[in-house]
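check this one:
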Amino acid sequence: MKNVKNNVETQWTLNVAPAWVPDSNAAACKCCDAAFSLTTRRHHCRNCGEVVCSSCSQKFIALPQFGITEPVRVCKDCFPSRTDEEPGGCVVS
């Protein structure tokens, strides 16, 4: 972890975002198993790095733990169920 801010009151740390799964390694969405095709496009979740379909990646949130302050695409498994929670992560088997 890299320390990005350190003072008497708070200490923030920046984690490294997970590497993206290569498109060539994903024939289907990791969340719903929909097969990718010309009409079902691949998208990467910025939180877990998995390849998912557009239906499973319609949410956008900031990921401050990775230094991302603007909302970015996340999969439905990583999107928090409440806005005050940190994003979870896909369960990858």
Notes: Residues 5 and 51 are 32 Å apart (CA to CA).
